[in-house]
Amino acid sequence: MPTIQQENGRRSIKGLPPRWGVRAYSELSRARAGVSIGEMPPAYTQLAALLDEVTAAPLPIDATDAQLCVLAERSANECASMATIIHDPKALRARLAWMVTNRGISPPQITDDRQFMLRCLDAAWWRRNLRRVHGRTFEHAAIRLGFVSIRAGAYASNETVQRRMAQVQRNAKMLRAVTMQNEHGHEFTLAELAAKGVGNKAIRRGELMLRMAGCEDVATERGDVGVFVTLTCPSKYHAVLAKSGTINPNYNGATPREAQGYLTDVWKCIRAKNHRDGLHPYGFRIAEPHHDGCPHWHLLLFIAPDQVAQLCANMRAYALAEDGDEAGARKNRIKIVRIEAEKGTAAGYIAKYVGKNIDGEHVGQHLDADGNVIGADLVGDAVIAPSQRVEAWAAAWGIRQFQAVGQPPVTVWRELRRVGAEHVADAPEHVRQAWAACQRVTETDPETGEVTTLQAASFGEYIRAQGGVNMGRLYRIGVAERVELKEGRYGLAPRPVYLGVYSKDTPEAVYASTRYEWKRAAVAPAIGRPWTGVNNCTGPDPEHVAGWEAFAPDPVPVAPHSDAEWYANFDFSYFDTDECRAHYKGGW
């Protein structure tokens, strides 16, 4: 039975975050329906069992980040102690793997025994993995208890969104603080370098829209038509009912990651059936959450007009293969819309789904899969946009949001943008065609600074230069790379180094890309300064001061350190446990 505790005059369930514990106690009291002795109502028994299961997780879901950091240090030290006892590499590896698994973490998937052990002895490795496992355990508990819904907080719990925002802010601060320098002496902060790539949300959204427009251009040339498909999981994968906001009694306890696995398996079956029937659609797939965090897919697919009916039949058959006879399955499990050219382009049709899953630009009202309006809400002192909730959901569960279907690799496209014109002057025609398709030519007004695009990049031309769609391993151009041993945190490891691109007809000729060797810029040492504009202290007579001391800087004042936050977050009850006594057996 769940443990009830009282703090500041409010009763709650022990082991849950304060906001959850108070609400869980209220619902548990309501489910009891006034019964004090004897057999409890079924609603009370079911809720009590759920609370017991949630609070008995390997990592307590109410653990703070400081406590996870302490656990990471303790786990690394325990592994180090074990390494001093067991000297046989195989036996030590097996023991460390058991210790890692016992914490709910997957052991490192690496064959080198030394690097395996170094990871287990590293508190940073433990901290990173504990945060990931705890974050998913926490979010799954929030879903099961109804804290992720249209009424409580769509897509992801408020706590997970706040944690993700804090992480983004920490990363941004670190990127701004580190300055890198290349071999030409050019200096940029990591934030400035990151803003030039697809880590920039505006660039990412623009690249996706460019790729979709190019794919549609190729489809128009081939005479193919577009279909827009929405693929959803069976009702048992949904934790909260959309209309009432109550817990789904048929919920099977699956996580969003497991639901994503179900959709992936369905798509594998559809692809295999399409291949047997000679169907080869191409386009894009977008994964996004329902209001309760359960994922669903949007697919924009292009195919020949005479194959549309067979494609739709295949997709419907496998989408309804599991629980296809349940109420509403034929209506809601899969929806297929034929895109009509007179009503707009396919890229324009899917633009809102791209925007609302990246940065919310050009979306208008943010609607979930059930047609409910998801507006910005206030969590703490911060205004949370719906796109931030979607991003927090994808980061927490490790779900890939966008994926191309049947198209040439985008890595070659990005690498071609790094290749200089002089390097492809003597290249085959299709390489020069692909290079030209990747280039965006602009002109800047010297007076106003306004940038005018003279020639836009064309992903459609790039697809044609690569040989078309659905070519598999037969695309004409690949990325040239070599594998080098690089020194990392845990020793030498093979790492691919991109060199440029090459034509698969003549693999010996590499068209080099422009790359820079970046190193952290030297940081000038801080020089002590008085806290006011002048120094009011009476100094010694300059005639009696040693030469080296006369030019020495004043000491830099150091702010006093406070351990109050650490002590406030640490669970000191650990020292009273049998585990602690066994760990420190023999004295402190």
From TrEMBL:
One matching Pfam family? Phage_GPA
Example GO BP: DNA replication
Keyword vocabulary terms for this entry: DNA replication, Endonuclease, Hydrolase, Nuclease
Please list every transmembrane segment annotated in the UniProt record, as residue ranges: none
Q: Is this entry keyworded Hydrolase? A: yes
| GO MF term (any one) | endonuclease activity
Residue intervals of the Replication gene A protein-like domain: 97-360
**Which family does this protein fall into?**
Belongs to the phage GPA family.
Function as written in the Swiss-Prot or TrEMBL entry? Possible endonuclease which induces a single-strand cut and initiates DNA replication.
What's the protein here called? Bacteriophage replication gene A protein
